[in-house]
Amino acid sequence: MTDYMYYDLAMTLIPAHRRTAPNYQCIDLGSGTGASAIRIASSTTNQKGKVVCLNVCPQQNRIAQHNVTKSNLHNQIQIVEGDFEQVPFPDHAFDLAFSQDAFIHAQSKIQAFREAFRLVRQGGAFVFCDVMAGPTTTDDQVEQFAQDNAIPDLLRPEQAMQAMRQAGWKDVHCLNVTKDMRISFQLMLQKVLASLETHKHDCDLLEQYCQQIQRRIEQIDRGLIQCEYV
């Protein structure tokens, strides 16, 4: 549900004449299986605009290509294998760069933000949504969370905003959407629990996934993590 929200937010930042231009271009940095790009391409009125899905995982890219073809959006969405810290596209190629739940894995947040800055045309926008450290989270808890989740670090919102400014972005704002993230996790949990009921013979992986979601909800309630749009 949150990809609709950040796309709507980004659209308010881009002039209407650019959104309807035939060379309108978006890029999803860390696109996973392409769900966000498919929703965005399906909802846009600009049928000539293009969305690029950039993702480093070949397995996810194959699934994304299948999903794009199944959705009959192969003329609008391009799947590209690549790293969002070294994007294989020229400067100022896109009107909008966006990312959801991906930059948390960046080895260098500043480098990832610099690449987004390099890619976006003047007058364009970059919006990302990710998990960040909560308001009461200690430095030890941040370090432990990073270790437990095999990520380089976990930024606080003010650190993310500072890193974006260091990368070249001038007009930087942060919006807390933790309540929406909690609702998303609850909906995911309901789906997983329903799957457990219908796939009882093969439930080990689903049970692990269920435990992970429950842990995230508990971490939100404790204030350990929060979700921010920047």
Describe this structure in words.
The chain has helices at 2-11, 16-19, 35-43, 58-70, 109-119, 139-148, 157-166, 178-198, 204-222, and strands at 25-29, 50-55, 77-81, 94-100, 120-133, 175-176, 225-229. The chain is an alpha/beta fold. The chain folds into 2 domains: 2-177, Vaccinia Virus protein VP39 (Rossmann fold), CATH 3.40.50.150; 179-229. Strands 3-2-1-4-5-7-6 form a 7-stranded mixed beta sheet. Strand 4 (94-100), helix 5 (109-119) and strand 5 form a beta-alpha-beta unit. The longest helix is centred in the C-terminal third of the chain and has 21 residues, at 178-198. The radius of gyration is 18 Å and the shape is globular. It starts with a helix and ends with a strand. 32% of the residues are buried. InterPro entries: Erg6_SMT_methyltransf (IPR050447), Methyltransf_11 (IPR013216), SAM-dependent_MTases_sf (IPR029063). It comes from Fistulifera solaris (Oleaginous diatom).
For the structure shown, list the relevant keywords.
230 residues, alpha/beta, Rossmann fold, 2 domains, 7-stranded mixed sheet, 9 helices, 19% strand, globular
